[in-house]
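Whether sequence alone determines local backbone shape is best considered at the level of individual chains. Part of our work consisted of pairing the sequence of a single chain with a tokenised description of its backbone. This step matters because it turns folding into a mapping between discrete strings. For completeness, the protein is quoted in full, as a sequence line and a line of structure tokens:

_____
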Amino acid sequence: EEGEGFRFAMQALDGGRINIATCSVGTAQQALDDALAHVQQRQQFGRPISEFQSVQFRLADMATELAAARLLVRQAAAKLDEGSPDKSAWCAMAKRLATDLGYRVCDEALQLFGGYGYIREYPLERYLRDTRVHRILEGTNEVMRLIIARRLLAEPGLALE
């Protein structure tokens, strides 16, 4: 009906947010996979840099953050499929978390590559650029925070579960 266009457009954004979140998770996973291969090949002080505890800690954090983002995206997608009343808040949470963490994982992977990470012969510089724009597409992450907070404030008794 007339006047319903905006509402329909806003509903389509939820699916778009899941899409962007999924793109971030996928790109970050590839960055982690590339970093894992690199640190096992790159030698420093006569041994692979993967043997250094600081490198192992970075890899562990990257994998943990990716797992958390992936699970939240899947939960939000399920809420969207169900038509849950809080689906928009879940999609906003998934988009915000996945794009922030996706960027951070790519940034950490680039750090593990060192200067090579900035060279176009290696895909890390593109992963970083791509995941950075994900934090803007389908609504900035600041807007995602507004959506989440407004949902929480509108119905304080309604837990996001």
